[in-house]
Amino acid sequence: MTCDPADLTAADHLDAAAEMTAADRPYLAHLLAEEAARRTTDPATAAGIRAAFPDPTTTREETH
């Protein structure tokens, strides 16, 4: 594993986002996916990444 965060790739961030989703950490998964999308040069791929990891603060439903 690298020690410099600047050396991480979009794929590294997507792997971490998937791990955070599996660990039930949706907001962290979203942030990692956003970074992956930012590092992706293809706009369609970036849009797909963002769609796969939506911001949980805008999609969550309140329950009482």
In short:
This protein has 64 residues and is mostly helical.
Tell me what the structure shows.
With 64 residues, the protein is an all-alpha fold. Helix content is 62%, strand content 0%. The protein has 4 helices and no strands. The chain is globular and about 45 Å long.
Task: Name a few traits of the molecule.
mainly alpha, globular, 4 helices, 64 residues
From the alpha carbons, calculate the radius of gyration and give it in angstroms: 13 Å
How would you describe the shape? Answer: globular
Measured between the Cα atoms of the first and last residue, the distance is 43 Å
Main structural class: mainly alpha
Range of strand content: under 5%
Characterize the main sheet.
Answer: none
- Helix-strand sequence: HHHH
Low-pLDDT runs:
none
